[in-house]
Design a protein that fits this description.
Length: 384
């Protein structure tokens, strides 16, 4: 049995991962689960999967969970310190990092330093600390298995291929809910509209990232670190149907693509069962029922977050970390209805321009940048 810890088990990715594991009960043993503050769902998961460890970041909820699980032989780890302790546990085969945002960076680093393979949904880890993480994997031999549908697609397209023969990586994106909305109407976008993704069911933060197209920008940076391909060889193509999840073009101009229905259980399962493709009873992709597959060029004017991401990647150093944290905090302010949709890229650009750039940051430097960018966005007002 493969021993697994899931960070963020109560979120969208975590719930889907446990569904995958439930369908393969003889393949996996759950060692640890973590949540931020969804105590009731976590208690249900513990009762079903019986992990050895449970981490709850919110201390008040941790006390509630501890009380609910007194009859169970499970160790409760409380607060941020408990999460970091769980992510450092060595006696497992795989850690799925399904945490949201920059909070997932240190747990990824901890697991890799412990020589534990990481199934990575938390793209922010690589966006913020790609160089550090690359050095750690080289040193420890631990692997990163991508969970994002796009990076899973690229990973599968590259199976058996010589990576020196890559001509370019083609990241596909649906275009989000505002693909066809005229730019003149962007100042009228509401929160409910931004949360209404046409194809995918995801958490709120990543849904807003998809609406601004920052998610695609972050994926460009993630692809850079995962596949060792320069920024100029990573291309974004809008594909509204979300059937082709990404492609790789080789030097002979042949292209390989990975297709599937927009269901996150597919890339999650592949990351958990790699290198096997386990049988499932999920809905099949019937190409005869699809009228067409269409493709468009990305509109960097309507969606400037993509341009900001490419600029940050070309600068490298601390620029991607600032981009990521400023975006994260701006999205939270938008979710709280404190700023308008159009202000998200404006805030990010301001933070990137004003931060103190470091070309080769240490982990302490990145953690300082995280705090600085968080404070910068919290202090922002529309009179800036």
């Amino acid at each position: 049995m493969k021993k697994i810890t899931i960070l963020g088990s109560t979120g969208s990715i975590g719930v889907n991962a446990l569904s995958v594991i439930d369908n393969n009960p003889n393949e996996f043993s759950i060692v640890g689960l973590s949540a931020y503050k969804n105590g009731d769902r976590l208690v249900e998961q513990v009762k079903k999967f019986e992990p050895e460890f449970v981490s709850i970041v919110d201390n008040e909820v941790a006390d509630y969970v501890e009380n609910k699980l007194r009859a169970f032989n499970v160790k409760i780890l409380k607060g941020r310190e408990g999460l970091l302790e769980l992510s450092s546990y060595e006696n497992i085969d795989l850690m799925l990092n399904a945490l949201v945002g920059s909070s997932g960076m240190e747990p990824t680093i901890n697991a890799l330093n412990s020589k534990v393979d990481v199934a990575l949904s938390n793209k922010e880890s690589l966006v913020m600390a790609g160089s550090l993480i690359k050095d750690i994997t080289t040193k420890t031999g631990a692997n990163i298995f991508p969970v994002d549908s796009e990076h899973s697609a690229i990973w599968q397209c590259l199976a058996g291929e010589d990576r020196k023969e890559i001509n370019k990586i083609i990241l596909t994106g649906s275009g989000g809910p505002f693909r066809t909305l005229p730019i003149e109407k962007f100042n009228t976008i509401t929160l409910d509209q931004a949360l209404n993704h046409p194809n995918w069911e995801m958490g709120k933060k990543i849904t807003i990232d998809s609406a601004t197209m920052m998610n695609k920008g972050l994926e460009v940076i993630e692809a850079y670190w995962l596949f060792n391909v320069p920024a100029e060889k990573i291309e974004i193509v809008i594909h509204p149907q979300s059937i082709i999840h990404s492609m790789v073009e080789f030097k002979d101009k042949s292209i390989k693509a990975q297709l599937g229905l927009p269901d996150m259980k597919i890339p999650i399962q592949y990351a958990l069962t790699y290198p096997s493709h386990h049988a499932t009873d999920w809905e099949e992709l019937d190409l005869t029922k699809i009228n067409s597959l269409t493709f468009e060029k990305p509109d960097f004017k309507k969606f400037p977050c993509m341009k900001l991401a490419f600029e940050a990647l070309n600068m490298n150093g601390t620029a991607p970390a600032v981009l990521n944290v400023a975006n994260e905090q701006a999205v939270y302010r938008f979710l709280n209805k404190e700023i308008d949709f159009n202000e998200i890229p404006k805030i990010i650009e301001m933070a990137c321009a004003k931060h103190e750039f470091i070309l080769e940051p240490s982990l302490d430097d990145i953690l300082y940048i995280e705090k600085w960018a968080t404070d910068f966005v919290k202090l922002y007002n529309n009179k800036n």
